Write the structure tokens for this entry.
Amino acid sequence: MNLHQRTSARRRGPLSPECEKPLHPNSAGNDLESSLLQIFTDHHRTSLRLREITVIETEKAKKEAVRVADLLVDEVNGGVQESFVNEKRIEMEIRGLAASIVRFMKQSDQWLTATHSINTAIKVCLSLNYSLLFLNYRDFKFMIELWIKEFKYDFAIKEGEGPCPC
């Protein structure tokens, strides 16, 4: 087989059986040529088989890569979803705490108002007790009426109304 015949056989693809037939009937040149031809065809078959295996393994690797990518995406999405749920829970707790703080502030203001009124009443009572020693009935009645007006006035202002018109 000459060089031209070998290159044309490569271009055609797999060797056909007629290419494997000896060209000349003499046995000395034919043995070498047939051995080379056999080596060439074995190499070609091995190369084709290796190419098939490579294609199959490449497809398997692509499928596994897609599977791994999907698992990674699922894991990342799960973490993001969990973070989002935690963020919403924290926001709800903050709102609840803010409402509790506002309620506590209102209650504190009410207690301060009540204690101020009680303190004022105690001071007035003490001053009345002390002044009773030196006052007569008419002055005592005047002091009680004055104290009632002052108490109503203070209570009306604390509740957000205007002064009592009494």
